[in-house]
């Protein structure tokens, strides 16, 4: 009987130790899954945003719906989500280059199968509504961006 109690105590101690270790690693940001920095399989472009630089992503490397949204922007609408699209984008995350507060506008890139706006957006900057100076794409709701070099008319 004493052997079973001792074994139970060791098992409990080991379990508590493992929980403490995993919790500590989670708090400290240690990747225990081995997937840190890996992107989901539906990403067609890699390493979109590095500190201090923004990678490029030509339209033909992005989801098909991105081209449709770019055409709508170049035409001045209509947009799929009136009241949401062609609205101010504040760049509060600070991922895009710092500009005046009215510089950026955002537009929804539809995600097939969703019944809401999803995470995909085109953000434009400068120029006019139908001829922006810069075009950016995000598929993770503003956590990272790539610059679309060929979205102009």
From TrEMBL:
Keywords: Hydrolase, Nuclease. Signal peptide: none annotated. Residues 41-50, 62-71 have a biased composition (Basic and acidic residues). Residues 34-93 are annotated as: Disordered. Coiled coil: none annotated. GO terms for molecular function: hydrolase activity; RNA binding; RNA endonuclease activity. This is Ribonuclease.
